[in-house]
Amino acid sequence: MNKHFKRILVPVDGSAGAGRAAAYAADLAGTVDCPITLLFVYHPDPNRVMGMVGLPRERIEEISKEAGAKTFASAREAMGDTSVDIEEKVIWGEPREEILALADQTEALIVMGRRGLGQMKELMVGSVSAGVLHTSKRPVTIVN
Q1: Is residue 55 part of a domain?
Q2: Number of Cβ within a 10 Å radius of residue 90
Q3: I need a surface site. Which of 33, 52, 132, 136 has the fewest CB within 10 A?
Q4: pTM (two decimals)
Q5: How many domains does the chain have?
Q6: pLDDT digits (tens, 9 = 90+) for 39-75
Q7: In 10 A of CB 60, how many CB atoms?
Q8: Is residue 137 exposed (0-12), middle (13-18) or buried (19+ Cβ within 10 Å)?
Q9: 105-133 burial, b if ≥16 CB within 10 A, otherwise e?
Q10: Distance CA 118, CA 120 (A)
Q11: Considering the domain boundaries, does residue 48 fall inside one?
Q12: Rounded to 5, what percent of the chain is helix, strand, coil?
């Protein structure tokens, strides 16, 4: 049994980087016999939130689950055929905070892409990746 982590947490956003991270995590999980959690953090921009005003809570939850399902399908496609146990989780919130909280809660290794779909692209590491890397108490692997 691996003493450093009990699970691999893979934050996904539908980007190519997230797909590469998911594929890497699937290979690693198969090697160390560890389950994976694919995490989609639904963090709508202010314009999208304004468009949701007046919608019933059930519809808003449905929208986030639909977005998550598309993102998970993309990640699973990148992972290919695998016998690894994979859980999918959709959470509302600020991505960095939610990733860190779930990693701490589940004693996970975080495997994430270097850059995602954020509106501001940084030169070397995306803002969420950089935030997780620099503030996590858990081990983090950034996949290029």
Answers
A1: yes
A2: 18
A3: 33
A4: 0.87
A5: 1
A6: 999 887 666 666 777 788 788 888 889 999 999 999 9
A7: 16
A8: exposed
A9: ebebbbbbbbbbeeeeeeeebbbbbbbbb
A10: 6
A11: yes
A12: 45, 20, 35
